[in-house]
Amino acid sequence: MDIDLVLRRDWQARAPRGSYTQLDSTKGVKVHYTGGRVEPAIVSDHAGCVSLVRSIQAYHMDGNGWMDIGYSFVACPHRKVFEGRGLHHLPAANGPGLNAGHYAVLGLVGNAGLVQPPDAMLDAVLDAVQYVRDRGGAGKEIKGHRDGYSTDCPGDPLYAWIKRGAPRPGGGTTPPPPKGAPPFPGRLLKYPPVMEGEDVRTWQRQMHKRGYDLTVDGAYGARSRDVCREFQREQGVEDDGIVGPLTWKLAWEAPTADG
After folding, report:
1. Does residue 189 form part of some domain?
2. At 43, phi and psi to the nearest 5?
3. Are 218 and 189 in contact (CB under 8 A)?
4. DSSP assignment, residue 28?
5. pLDDT in tens, 62-86
């Protein structure tokens, strides 16, 4: 199979403190998220992914006192898979007594900032899964960290995808090109206080077209703010409830649920 593997030397991993415990085979894979804030900018900056993986290793070794990064592999939004502890090595991230059962694969999303895994990241998770099946003695299971351990990990979006059977994104079809957004009106739409104007009406009309229950009244109040936050969470950007240039652009250009 094809996998875009970033070897430990390529991301300048620190050497482990000691020898790994041998892992001959597992039931499958458990999927994780960072549990913290992940900057959405990494989606367009792979160097940010490298820095984040290095910081996670440092936290695990210096903060947790572990011998190395706790994950077997790490999937990033550029469909690249970072080698963590790697094949046939016991991970540390699944929880006490649970590490021998599954490899641990981290998707670089968190509980703030980038929370919605891009399709390329889901592909990378599945690339890692197939890799450990083909070469690491892994079984067919794909589970979330929360399965069998009390945690929010891997976050609701990733876990919902796992519960759907962890399908390949897109189903092999090419989505139609997005329609362009109208020019940003030049002011931030936010509440409180209630902001009024035709720019508010234009944004509300577009969100209504996207299926949100929102009255097109030209007044940006509490309901508009709540819809904005829901939409921002779905898009994996900061959910501040403010329609700035990025949220405005996404309102027209982000794919809808029906494609």
Report:
1. no
2. -60, -30
3. no
4. E
5. 999 999 999 999 999 999 999 999 9
